[in-house]
Amino acid sequence: MKEQICLITGSTLGGAEYVAEHLDDLLQQQGWQTQLLHGADYNDVIEQPLWLVITSTHGAGEIPENLNPLFEQIQQADLDLSGLKFAVVGLGSSDYDTFCFAVNKVEDILQSKGATLLCPSLRIDVVKESDHDQCAEDWLPNFTQQII
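-> structure tokens emitted (148 positions)
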């Protein structure tokens, strides 16, 4: 049986949530069990061994407000996340010099606690890419091939 994938979204305007819902549908079609959480709570996800984080970048390169508390709690806790495998999909605008900085922050926080990044993160430039779902769909095999 395939591992359950916990999709965790952080979004300010909803774009990351739409991409997460599309990826959730695709993963289920491929036979994966999934759990989709918008703005996840620490206790809901900390025991999950496989995360796909889909996040936008908010303000001056910040993790969105509905996701930031989770990552602040992880950062401040004395945790060993060496059993956690993860990947990140980010949405941002290249008009800002903080383009997809939330992706960097998620990677840094999780890797500092021993988690394993499974594949290079996807950074979707909303200025240049009109079909965010298709960008994520094209990237998805990079993630799933690492967990089979």
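The two ends are 10 Å apart (CA to CA).
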